[in-house]
Design a protein that fits this description.
By secondary structure, the protein is mainly α. It is 38% helix and 4% strand.
Amino acid sequence: MKIRQFLSYTIAATGLFISACNKQLNLLPKDSLSEPAYFKNPNDLALYCNQFYSSLPLQNSFWTETNSDNQVPLNRNTFLAGTYPVPVTGGGWDWAQIRAVNYFLQRYTRVQADAATLNKYAAEARFFRALYYWQKVKQFGDVPWLNRDLNDTSASLLYGPKTPHKQVMDSVLADLNFAVQYLPDLDDVEDGRLHKFAALALKSRICLWEGTFRKYHGLGGEAVHLNAAVAASEEIISSNNYDIWSTGNPTKDYYNLFIQEDLTGNKEAILPAVYIRNVLTQNLSRQLTESSTGFSKNFVRSFLCTDGRPTALSPLYKGDDSLDAEATNRDPRFTQLIATRGLVLQNNADGTQNVFTLPAIGTSAAPTGYMIIKCLSPDPAQWNANQSTLDMFYFRYAEVLLNEAEAKAELGQCTQAVLDNTVNKLRDRVGMPHMVIASLVKDPQSDFPALPVLLDEIRRERRIELAAEGFRLDDLLRWKAGKQIEKPETILGMKLVPAIRAQYPPSQVGGIQLDANGYIRLYTNITNRTWNDKMYRYPIPTQELNLNPNLLPQNAGWQ
């Protein structure tokens, strides 16, 4: 398809742009690097903006959730372990991308082009500035707001103070609104470039994060951002451009969504990440078989039973003495996220199949017993090192529906009609009973016992649907729910009863440690993690504080 041709062009053009810039380095001062060579025609604007596309955040990245309660990596996450040191330099305090955006925004109007063209590329740049600043605020909280590029005459910016979180995020919202207004519609966008609905999806994501962060951290003013999240989500929904992908097979569709080689025609893909053999490939299927992580017991417990009830309330729950029992009568996404008996791991060239039987405990494929299979294709071509051509998602329609439901619930506006238009569309794909407000009963084992049942169940749905897509830690932080990681079962795996253990070679399971209740325990020196509220923010590198005392004080708790 044309989008795949464009991707090749974009990669090549980005390389040419960087190469050309490097050749200019010895000839021009840094603050006027591209002025003689670029910003002469619209193609220069496109070439410049190409450099930002590689920083779009992938959703299908299982390793981005090893820092949460969803997964238990073999090697403890240093941040959640409380051993993260205050860095001297680096640590995410890098402004190169923001400087590059601001450099563009100060010069793009020099191009002789119509207003629509100029605004389109300014909208791309401001889309990325919104993304970069949101990432900075998530990590550090208050940060300096820089709205022009730094050079030898920018001392007031370079050594300025931090800008309050809320003020920065209000500026982020202004950038997002500009991007939504001026990025082209689907009918007018060049294949592979940003469009209006990608900007709306980012706005939906960021505004939900900011609105709930303000609410649960007591900053106030959350309604503006929650309403903005609703407005962005509803504009996407009402466009009728997108839908939940389904073939009518509830036991396979969710799994199959993530092992497709071409998502460009998939209506769930608001913006796909495209991979092409010999141009740009990835390694995810192979990595999943040697991931050194697995889902946690806490995550697995969150799957409802097929009657729509939690395990603590459902007569259908068969217990967890084996993975077979634990998967029985559960939300069909259980067996489409976690390897269970009968899963075809790989179709071999000779016509045979590698079929999953027992969890690969004691190995790097599934140290907890709950092996992650999202994006794991049985196609052997996808297992070749760094040669996978499975497409991934930058923005997925399912997330937008979940954002809408949660924002509406936070505003006290979530009706049954809202649920039917959002959460229940996700449940329809996998054949789960609808979420019905009048029938909701609080889970006695809820991770959020003080939360109203409707919000609690929307959070559960988000956790399951978006598992292994990189959202979970951001969600816990915005909900001010860091203490969730203190629960012992967030670092435990499956139960290993003697009858199951006897089915493994002693050499494979001899070193496995269990807790007092028989659950796999990967970290033998602790029974639970400890949360410190300073971990809602990362520390600013000490060298930056020394260079610019206006950044003081250090983020709370990191002094």
